[in-house]
Design goal:
homotetramer; alpha+beta; Chorismate synthase, AroC fold; five-stranded antiparallel beta sheet; 18 strands; 25% helix; 24% strand
Chain lengths: 354, 354, 354, 354
């Protein structure tokens, strides 16, 4: 389902790329929280397209309308619904794609899932455009979290072969990276990343990357064992972002190549508090927070929409066919996905806290 | 919670390492399925300890007793409960650990989660022993899946710096690896892996690794968009296995370093069926199966229990303290985790199919 | 939550009486179903106010706008969202009620639930107006059910002391009562009921009643034991309708006064099919359908909004206070609740069938 | 499912009347709660059979064994599992019933649900015996509630045509009825009830009844709007008790015959607290508690197992057939159901409070 049913909060995302509108219902937000909508829109701006030559040129008027859930800007406890209108609706030129699925898109799997009744226009419900309501929901939840002293920030760790510095997993709370237009720690790496993206663009190609995210200010003892831990819930929800193909916490896949003595986080006392010297666990043991920052990384595949000619098929005729994708597409969605990762993290964590 | 509430099947795991017993309730299995308990026990044997010098020497009598849900060996549709007795119960010598948490275990996070009332004996509910009921549940579900022509198999892809060959993601269905005592594709790599583990053991240390798993025989069109797709549900449940710190599908993190033209899976027609030439997507697009094998990899950190002296603290006194772990522990849990990965995959997939 | 999370379908209702809009998201409808929106609007008309002197005079333009989920009038499998605009929004004259709760309304309990941040205007989220999106969702689901030969119909069984005939629990499938403007079996009883309602209206009072509902065309074997049976799920959801205070299936409370020999439903063979001679069970045994019509009754309390002066309090001052309710209110909501009962039944049953 | 998935607590009941054992897993109990098992067993004794001539003569050794979740009698936060052994297992003499369903039992609907693979022996999973684990779970939860000052008590309100006095809905907290062997307020009515039951017994028949339950000590503001309110959740779970065919809150069905002015609960100030003068709402408005006692009534049909000859069918042959039920059965299950109603109420309320 396109609904995230947490223990406390429920998020229902709706809409297709070319339907009348898209949006989200957030059920069971705490009552009495002042929501600064201007800040919400600014957050959403970070994912909006058209900010640079590196992202799709399609202009969106993504300003959401609040239909319910706020009274004078304050949550009243019942479902908050926000709607974003689609201006491009129902264009007729998708019949093409309906029968000729784009490689590594959800066109074919969606066709099979919905017996051919899936909405293909602009990617339908699987479009990256659906991350706008995710950002809305996350931005609202983030304001509630900030009030509790919890901070969520993400940056681009890698684009193709260019890597940024990693977060310092112990002291990341002191960093303030989130709102940069191209969020990296090392600006030089950022420049090289932009060059990689531009190169791919000029070559009618696309590139993938990795986003690293940190949650700081969380108390120890959050989460539940086995299937309902912080790793489980974050993983479940982060895979809800289109193009994510992997997630790892702390040392993650790197831990596979280490000795226990290298990977274990020794305990220490710091200002009378129990801490760990290192944070290879990414802040989580047994699914439960240990008070250190949560650190995770999500892998994004390269945008499957590329302008090079590709091999597809006719679903109807069961014959092979060439496909050339038209329209405007990001050569790399990773920069715009940074706030999306933060947003999904925000509502997942808020759900676990409540 | 220690319960996996799927769309159709529910798995409730219970027990602590030193409680009277451990077990699992599987609610909503399809009725009328003949369960071969001998095969279930053989499957469980693959994870049982004490099979070699490389795993813990503790002897378990892990034969589960079926309390309900079967009539003459056939599922009757109502909850199936299996119980495994613990023979080592309530030993008194864990007071030590109760106040001195083992680095990178759930001792400390569990203490904080349960206000100091967590059961620490043998790791309590967080013990690897709790994977025995997971294996039971998975082995039962796997028999139902096999009847539908669905096959699940996993192998050790990596131990420390030694790698096995990867599954051929297109033709893995033809492989039969699952039941080897030390499941690898390349036996030479397997020997080196065992040497790595033994080296760590002799050094009072431990090592991590990666398990790769493939599901074949699934039709296209399984799963749901956004938060309820196959990747979401597998990720959520696989993180329920102790020591897992990462998961990736298809090219996974590797996709971050590729061009779209390299990562996209071209379509083709094979024997009148729509297939993809490559399977970089790991069988899933938009959360929904595309008919190709599901391929994923899970990263396991090195066993946190090592015999070297480590730095811990006294929770009560808030002072630093040395800790030396006693008892018997696997220097590497990866070999025994292979059937666990298969088992969790089995009940996740069965839930999505029903 | 204002979300009904079934096994398959999820319904999220949002909106307050005076927010910008109200609406519903229906997640996981089957794909490929042609929805006749004209029929949906006609169904919603049955609950719309202002149809007679017996219901509130407020005019609503309740025509919903479909934001997503349909392509050319056919479900595409992803969430369907419908929005109804509120034309009366944010009137300032509710400060009164905010501090002086109306007896037997949710003003006080809502105040306590949301720490005083609840939206009181027009009853907020607890307003009967929120049954419009329920009707929308039900009307859509009913079209899917009708295609399967399943029929849902309800009638007014009682208003104050006037009773209609009960459905014949064995042969109700042949009846066609649903769409009458004042749905009763016995028109004479209907006249007397209307007289009762009018009498209450003239006396600045209100009256309650009972609605009886039948579902026919269902196969035997639907539902699950214990907490997830048809009775459980219908009860859970029917209590989501404002003013419902009781529900009973088959003989219901009447069964308490019977001998087993009177209440048991003997089996018989009819046209080669297994049936029961009577249907005192209301079509359900052990939470599971037995193939006979489902019959249940829901009790509605009298509208708590009456024009007589009542005793209330000032929440702030903790002093007693008189309250006189203004505005327009139905002297009896039972007639308009008939389609609401059918609607909630429709999505509950569809969820259980899928 | 036989699992109650609340917002916080999850209850999984398993077992059949003649399987090896029956039991329950309670997931997510708060940690650190001392559970007095002796009191739990005493509570369970209240539902145990064989206490008088009025209940079934079958002797049970219903003492549950605790497999997990307690350390030295204190909850440790992880799943608590209790198992009760069945001593009568797998008797061969149920082949009869397998093909000849008992009227108004779940034999036929269960057969259809599970394609003939349902366990019929002793009623299988649908047996009243499965209420023993419900009582266990409830008794544990009740101890947690009692610590918070919350009291749950129920009594027999009616057997056939004999009625007990109703609880005083305003002052019921002062009453102490729960532990009487035959729980009624008016002992004379109790005597007449026993006479009714005995009469039915001697006539090879059975009788139904009504149980009334009160929850006191709850704060106002508990519950959620629409589908997740206190009425919804109690109704959903109470219908999990075999033989329940109706539930009503406060005035319930009686409210249908009242004017608003009669049914509304005026507010008043009592010792500086906001109360209502009457409690016709049964403590709940809009699904949310208002601070007054929760009052509800559940209707129980007469035991469907009677010794008189009844009309059944052969499922296989599709022919009509006479059936005479053997074995020992309660002529009225209402007295033994009183603690079951309290138990289900207890875990439902605890789930909503946490």
């Amino acid at each position: 389902m396109s609904s995230m049913t947490g223990n406390k909060i429920k998020i229902s995302v709706f809409g297709q790329s070319h339907s009348e509108g898209i949006g989200v219902v957030i059920d069971s937000l705490p009552a009495g929280k002042k929501i600064d909508l201007e800040k919400v829109y600014q957050f959403m701006e970070r994912r909006a397209p058209g900010r640079s030559i590196l992202s799709t040129q399609r202009k969106e008027a993504d300003k959401p309308e609040i239909l319910s859930g706020l009274v004078n800007g304050v949550t009243c406890g019942v479902p908050l619904c926000a709607v974003i209108r689609n201006t491009n609706t129902r264009s007729a030129d998708y019949n093409n794609i309906a029968d000729t699925p784009r490689p590594s898109h959800a066109d074919f799997s969606g066709f099979m899932r919905y017996n051919g009744f899936n909405d293909v226009a602009g990617g339908g419900h699987f479009s990256g455009r659906l991350t706008a309501p995710l950002c809305f929901a996350g931005a609202v939840c983030m304001q509630v979290l900030e009030e509790m002293g919890i901070k969520i920030q993400a940056h681009i760790l890698r684009i193709k072969d260019v890597s940024d510095e990693s977060f310092n997993p112990v002291s990341v709370a002191e960093m303030n990276i989130g709102k940069k237009p191209f969020p990296v720690i090392n600006e030089k790496a950022g420049e090289k990343m932009r060059a990689e993206i531009d190169k791919a663009r000029l070559d009618c190609n696309s590139v993938g990357g990795i986003i690293e995210c940190a949650v700081t200010g969380l108390r120890a003892g959050l989460g539940n064992p086995m299937f309902d831990g912080v790793e489980n819930m974050l993983a479940k929800n982060i895979f809800g972002i289109p193009a994510v193909k992997g997630i790892e916490f702390g040392n993650g896949f790197g831990a596979a190549g280490l000795f226990g003595s290298e990977n274990n986080d020794d305990f220490c006392i710091e200002n009378g508090e129990i801490k760990t010297v290192t944070n290879n666990s990414g802040g989580i043991n047994g699914g439960i927070t240990n008070g250190m920052p949560i650190i995770f990384r999500a892998a994004f595949k390269p945008t499957p929409s590329i302008y090079k000619e590709q091999n597809s098929v006719s679903i109807k005729d069961k014959t092979e066919k060439k496909l050339k994708i038209e329209g405007r597409h990001d050569p790399c969605i990773v920069p715009r996905a940074v706030p999306v990762v933060e947003a999904v993290t925000a509502f997942t964590i808020l759900d676990m806290i409540m």
